[in-house]
Amino acid sequence: MKSPLVSRILKKLAKRAGVKVNLEPNWGFVGQVVLPDGRKRYFRNTSLDLNPLGASEVARDKDYSNYFMGKMGYPIVPGKSFFSDKLSTALKSKRNIDAGWRYAQKIGLPVIVKPNSRSQGVGVSKVSNKKDFYAAAKFVFKKDNVMLVQRALTGKDYRIVVLDKEVISAYERLPLTVVGDGKSSISKLLGLLQKKFTREGRDTMINPEDFRIKAKLRRQGLKMNFVPKKNEKITLLDNANLSAGGMALDVTEIIHPGFKKIAIKLTRDMGLRYCGVDLMVVGDIAKAPLKYWVLEINAAAGLDHYVSLGKKQARIVNDLYLKVLRAMKKS
């Protein structure tokens, strides 16, 4: 079995960084970094031994991180958490799935429904009616006991990756989309896109039966057998996570210093050294910040799909992990 990208890169860069990297032999998913003075550091896929445990745990919990970011004055997405039947019973709380639906109506449809502690866009849905809300909520509660219901915002979705007061990379995230050739159905185009991902080494697996894809098509009055015109773009998901089949547009060289400052300060304020800061921006990230929201933060930001953008991005990722290994030596 092929080791994850991070493991392969860290192993390759170990000598340049002046460290030794030992990978667990069966899966290569976990590794040990031996520093020159004999100290040991560890990593588990994209979870690197740089961020403090407490800060990492808070970052993993979207509701808690939103609380602290909001308390510090950062513009967060309006929303609220709700609990599975099991957890709401245990907590003696009325914040169950039905309360979530009432709240969604209160803040105005459509809303975003997502798990509180999952990453990579798992279970993130944009819903516009009661049927879709309950389907999305039930899916979330299969993955997590806590669900977030948030206002659906309009803007451009960006991820900014920070390491020790420096922006390493920034890219716009675009949702899963197929482009028509004038003769293939959406279903066939989706299959061709999956083959393209496989050729590129992306581990993204697109599920054509995903209820979110069907709901998105239904809102557009389309079905999987629809044949788009040549160059016609059909968006199949609302969330723009690369692991969900989204694409990325590199903006590292054009990001405005104001957004860099925001991402670096937020990373520090949340007690992190390494962080992926996700922003929804009204306008363009190349211009001075005017209106934006912090979607969430990620203390174990992966760059697997960013690498697939090209040789330049691959160099950026290699440079990042070289800096990670050197940062471990200083910690």
Number of helices: 11
Residues in β-strands, percent: 15-25%
Secondary-structure-derived class: alpha+beta
Q: How is the biggest beta sheet arranged?
A: 5 strands, antiparallel
Question: What is the top-level CATH class of the domain at 78-152?
Answer: Alpha Beta
Radius of gyration: 21 Å
The total of beta strands comes to 15
Let me know the CATH homologous superfamily of the domain at 78-152: ATP-grasp fold, A domain
Strand order of the largest sheet: 13-10-9-14-15
Named at the architecture level, the CATH assignment of the domain at 78-152 is 2-Layer Sandwich
Output mean pLDDT.
92
Order of helices and strands: HEEEEHHEHHEEHEEEEHHEEHEEHH
Structure notes:
This protein is an alpha+beta fold and 331 residues long. Among the domains are: 5-52 and 317-330, no CATH class; 78-152, ATP-grasp fold, A domain (Dna Ligase, domain 1); 179-236, no CATH class. It contains eleven helices and 15 strands. The protein has helices at 5-17, 53-60, 62-71, 85-90, 97-107, 130-143, 186-199, 211-219, 257-269, 304-307, 311-330, and strands at 20-23, 30-34, 40-44, 47-48, 79-83, 111-115, 125-127, 146-151, 156-163, 166-174, 177-179, 233-235, 247-250, 274-282, 291-298. The strands form four sheets. A five-stranded antiparallel beta sheet has the order 13-10-9-14-15. A four-stranded antiparallel beta sheet has the order 1-2-3-4. A four-stranded antiparallel beta sheet has the order 5-8-6-7. A hairpin with a 2-residue loop joins strand 3 (40-44) and strand 4. Helix 1 (5-17) crosses helix 11. The two termini are 32 Å apart. The mean pLDDT is 92.
